[in-house]
Specification:
Blueprint (H helix, E strand, L loop, with lengths): L2 E4 L5 H9 L7 H17 L1 H12 L13 H10 L2 H19 L6 E4 L5 E8 L2 E5 L8 H14 L3 E5 L9 H10 L3 E3 L3 H10 L9 E3 L4 H10 L4 E2 L7 E6 L5 H12 L6 E6 L2 H15 L5 H11 L1 E4 L3 H11 L3 E5 L15 E4 L5 H6 L25 E8 L2 H17 L3 H11 L1
Parallel strand pairs: 1-11, 4-5, 4-7, 5-6, 7-8, 9-10, 9-12, 10-11, 12-13
Antiparallel strand pairs: 2-3, 3-14
Length: 430
């Protein structure tokens, strides 16, 4: 059963904070294992990739060239998929592209009062690596949500890696790649795939940034290679917080909560409501729906360990709780939700109204479903076009502008003890 809390209780926020802390075992073993794998791939290249792939994915690779997915294999996989699934992927792809096209920023140049030319320009990252999970479930939607914003931003080369247990790939994963315009795909997973993208090998090209979700080993690998290569985020388990009142069907809310619980045993589902009657009804429906879920064992463990029902005085108090949690997904699942949007300060994505389940955002709404987790919404945003662009400042001083700024520049340089800085200015004044 989920944990119950009441905002009017003494030390409520302390209790909530304690509940929000994941019970994670010491990860020193994962850190060492990942570090060893990265070192091996960095020094031995393709030989290490082959050895790790054969060990962890259980298929005979042979030559490094066999790690790369051939174009004909991608097209054949697409033909294996149902037309219904292909059309759904295409619909999602169109909507994701349309949304992200509206995010493209503009270059800017202007003249200041001294006649200096200032501004900035946006430049796409040249090469991006996309990690796609291939463990407990296959997620073709993740291919779309990562690759399409990169394409819209103008990324020239996307290199996709995906684990292939027994050498087999989910056809929908390859179909999603083809629809997204990803042509270079390798059957490599785990920390070894991240290392290959970060440092390159004879087979796998080195990239400039790595995006995409993965298990604890993948997350740790991204952490360790950061600096040598850019990364999107250090993602934790999926989260949803639903704010609801008596205006919403409790059966709907139960399904929304379970939509995150079924992802992973560590996923978190939270209901915040001003109605104890609704809360009890939701809890009843959660138990009922759990019985029929394909991933009921995962969802059950997630709900029992990390689920939470919070009773508050009113919807304003609910928003206060939501901002404290700063979850990946927030549903404002009640009548008149629009006027509460501005009260939400910390969230990866806000789903407004009774007819906007989080699942719509996972697949077809348009925004990327790659969002900050574990409270990171306090300081970061979901994946977008901006993650694949670099902003470069442009500075061009006129003679008059230089002369007006020179003295202050010299003073500050000397104050910091940086003589060459000062000299580079004083020489131009002579």
């Amino acid at each position: 059963m989920a944990k119950w809390l009441n905002k009017n209780q003494k030390n409520f926020f302390r209790q909530l904070e304690a509940h929000l802390k994941y019970k994670v075992a010491a990860n020193s073993k994962i850190q060492k294992t990942v570090g060893d794998i990265i070192s091996e791939v960095n020094t031995r290249g393709d030989k290490a990739l082959i050895a790790f792939t054969e060990k962890f994915d259980g298929w005979k690779v042979g030559a490094a060239k066999n790690l790369k997915v051939a174009k004909k294999e991608i097209l054949a996989a697409k033909r294996e998929c149902s037309q219904e699934a292909i059309e759904a992927l295409k619909l999602a792809a169109r909507r994701i592209e349309e949304y992200h096209l509206k995010q493209i920023p503009q270059d800017k140049r202007y003249s200041d009062s001294l006649g200096n030319q200032l501004g900035w320009k946006w430049t796409p990252i040249e090469k991006v690596g996309l990690y796609v999970p291939g463990g407990k479930a296959a997620y073709p939607s993740s291919v779309l949500m990562n690759a399409i914003p990169a394409k819209v931003a103008g990324v020239e080369k996307i290199v996709m890696v995906v684990p292939a247990p027994k050498g087999e790939l989910n056809p929908l994963i390859l179909a999603a790649a083809e629809i997204s315009g990803v042509e270079e795909i390798y059957k490599i997973g785990g920390a070894q795939a991240i290392a290959a993208l970060a440092f390159g090998s004879s087979c796998v090209p080195k990239v400039d940034k790595i995006v995409g979700p993965g298990n604890a080993y993948v997350v740790e690998a991204k952490r360790q290679v950061f600096g040598a290569v850019g990364i999107d985020t250090i993602a934790g388990p999926s989260e949803i917080l639903v704010i609801a009142n008596d205006s919403t069907n409790p059966e709907w809310i139960a399904a929304d909560l379970l939509s995150q619980a079924e992802h992973d045993e560590m996923s978190r589902s939270i209901l915040v409501t001003d109605s104890e009657k609704l809360a009890k009804a939701v809890e009843k429906y959660v138990e009922k729906q759990l019985k029929d879920l394909k991933r009921k064992d995962i969802a059950r463990k997630s709900w029992d360990q990390n689920g939470c029902i919070i009773i508050v005085k009113n919807l304003d108090a609910a928003c206060e709780v939501a901002n404290f949690v700063a979850p990946e997904h927030i549903e404002l699942c009640f009548e008149g939700a629009e006027k509460y949007v501005e009260k939400i300060k910390n969230a990866g994505a806000i789903f407004v109204g009774r007819y906007t389940p989080e699942a719509i955002g996972d697949y077809t709404a348009g925004p990327s479903h790659v969002l900050p987790t574990s409270g990171a919404a306090r300081f970061s945003s979901g994946l977008s076009v901006y993650d694949f662009l670099k902003r470069t400042s442009i500075i061009s001083c006129s003679k008059k502008g230089f002369e007006k700024l020179a003295d202050a520049t010299e003073i500050l340089a000397n104050e910091e003890g940086l003589g060459a800085h000062s000299l580079s200015v004083s020489l131009r004044k002579r």
